[in-house]
Structures are given as C-alpha cells and as structure tokens.
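2024-03-11 09:14:02 INFO worker-7 job=invfold-0412 stage=load source=structure_tokens
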C-alpha cells in the first residue's frame, strides 16, 4: 500500500542495528522518538548462489569461525524485509542518525546499483511528488539511474571475512549515506552490542520504547570555527552518552530533545557564524530557559537529600561556558596586543 509523507514535517533516519550476532541497516521516518514508518532494511550475507538463502544468516557466526575467518568469501547485500507476520518482540541494539530525504534516495539508488535479477530490494520508493508531498510505494522495480560504487564500498558489500563481516558492511553502508565516519561508540566487532536497546515488533522498532536518533555529527560541518566546533563536539558527546542512563524515562527524552534542538539551532546558524561572545550568550539564554530540564537528576541516591548535586549535562554546559570565556579573554588579549604593536610600531 502506498504511503504519503510531507517533507515539511517528516524526519528520516538511518540506523545500524544488531540482532543476536547479525548486523543490518534500517531506514525510515520518525517523530517524537517513535518510528512512524520503516522504509527499508538490508544486510550482508553469504552469496549462496542457488542454495537455500536461509543459510546465509550464518554470516557472522559460522562464517567467521570457519572458512571466512581465514579467507574472503563472496557476499551480497540482501533485502531483509520491512515487516513480519508475527510480533516476535526480538531484542536488538542500535544507533540511529538523522538523514535528509535526498540521502534516503541516494541509499535507494545505491541498492538499485547492487540489484540483480535474483537479488532485488523491496523497499519504499518515491513514485510521485507534488510540492512537498511525496508518494512512496513498496516496490522492487528500478526507478533511478545507477551510479558506480567506490572500490572500498564494493569490497565491503561483496566480500565476507572475519575482518569484513556483516558489521563492517553495515558500517560502510551507513557511512556512505552520512558522508562521514560513523560514531566511535559503534564497534567494528560483530559480537559487540551497539549503544542503545529496543525491540522489533512485527519487524519494526517497538513503539513501547523511545527510538533515539542522533543529529549529524560536528565533523559534517567543515566550515565551523574552532570554538564553535568544540562546543558542538561536547554537546554531541553528551547526547550520545546520556542515552545510556535510564533511556526509557520521560526525563531522558526531554533532556535529549532539549540538547538536540539547541545543537541543531547552532548548526543552522552556521552561515551567520556568531562571535565567541554571541555563542556564549546563546548558551546562557538556553541554559536559563531550560535549566530545570538540563539539571534533572535521572538517577538519585539517598545522599541527594543532604547535598546539592548538579546533573552531568549541566556540569558539561558550565564547563563549555568557562572554556568560551577563556577563549574570549585570549582573543581580546591578542587583539589588544595587535593594536598596541600597530600603534607604537
């Protein structure tokens, strides 16, 4: 059944996920920390030719421990299906990232380049557009012009070994869409869990738990000045790590959204790069307006009744303020020194 999405209020994500020992990639739309529609799901498996495709699911375990541990084996990216008939309630770990609709289309275009007569990808593809309303249809038909794959990507998706397993393939697919390296919190070892947890109900991330999507990381924005980049890096690191504590709580959802919104606002102001002073003012206004959310203690101890403790998030924000003050003082000192040398020179 076709689905309609409005680009003005639709948010898209790409996620690397792990179920048992297998890593795969999911793409979809989300809103308010809930997946609205899963659009595509693929993963790397053994290329078994005419054999039973179900055996390909052994890509990570048996392959890594036998022949694939010592030599490279042929592999393919395969469609894993968007939904399941049974609820399943299968535990997975994941990390997800914001992408644009254009990036989603790039991913579909990449899949169509990999598509073969006996290895097609059934996912949602845009079939028509009127203004900002997009109609998507679940189909395996090729709709886009294929594009050449880079050497590293071709190797990552077409070969399988202990050093190039389903986790490596999933990471490479995500990085190809994001156009930057994946988070350091994502291990390349297929047996290591990914940072965050949820369940798949009928093949889709459960709506009973929040599904967190990180914004594009600071290294995406190459023209950002040093001081602002450092601020963005601290905020991004805090977003990643805050989700490890009480991820299902309302307080965590509010705090994550608060920091993410401010991060995105600063990124949006990239064209009009603020001075250190302006950036400091922005942070102070934001901290004052959202102080209660930012300073919420999501894990408390009995001694909290006797002492006043700041949240880790607020502590980091105040450290950012101190660093900006030091940078501002240093910049003023250099400016005054330059003016003095010019005047007396």
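2024-03-11 09:14:09 INFO worker-7 stage=emit residues=345
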């Amino acid at each position: 059944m076709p689905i309609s999405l409005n680009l003005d209020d639709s948010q898209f994500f790409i996620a690397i996920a792990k179920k048992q020992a297998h890593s795969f990639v999911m793409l979809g739309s989300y809103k308010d920390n809930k997946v609205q529609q899963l659009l595509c799901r693929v993963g790397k498996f053994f290329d078994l030719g005419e054999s039973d495709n179900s055996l390909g699911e052994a890509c990570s375990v048996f392959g890594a421990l036998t022949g694939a541990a010592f030599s490279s084996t042929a592999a393919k990216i395969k469609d894993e299906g968007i939904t399941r008939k049974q609820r399943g309630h299968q535990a997975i770990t994941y990390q997800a990232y914001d992408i644009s609709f254009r990036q989603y289309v790039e991913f579909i275009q990449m899949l169509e380049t990999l598509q073969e007569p006996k290895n097609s990808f059934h996912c949602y593809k845009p079939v028509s557009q009127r203004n900002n309303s997009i109609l998507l249809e679940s189909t395996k038909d090729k709709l886009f012009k294929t594009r050449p794959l880079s050497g590293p990507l071709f190797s990552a998706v077409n070969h399988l070994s202990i050093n190039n397993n389903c986790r490596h393939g999933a990471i490479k697919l995500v990085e190809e869409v994001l156009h930057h390296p994946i988070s350091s919190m994502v291990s390349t070892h297929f047996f290591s869990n990914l940072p965050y947890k949820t369940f798949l109900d009928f093949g889709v991330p459960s709506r009973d738990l929040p599904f967190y999507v990180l914004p594009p990381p600071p290294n995406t924005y190459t023209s950002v000045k040093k001081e602002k980049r450092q601020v963005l890096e601290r905020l991004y690191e805090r977003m990643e790590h805050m989700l490890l504590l009480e991820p299902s709580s309302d307080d965590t959802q509010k705090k994550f959204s608060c920091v993410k919104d401010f991060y995105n606002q600063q990124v949006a102001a990239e064209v009009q790069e603020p001075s250190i002073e302006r950036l400091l003012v922005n942070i102070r206004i934001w901290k004052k307006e959202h102080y209660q959310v930012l300073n919420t203690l999501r894990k408390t101890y009995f001694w909290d009744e006797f002492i006043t403790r700041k949240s880790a998030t607020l502590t980091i924000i105040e450290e950012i303020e101190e660093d900006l003050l030091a940078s501002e003082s240093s910049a003023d000192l250099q400016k005054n020194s330059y003016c003095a040398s010019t005047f007396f020179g």
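2024-03-11 09:14:09 INFO worker-7 stage=report msg="The first helix runs from residue 62 to 65."
2024-03-11 09:14:10 INFO worker-7 job finished
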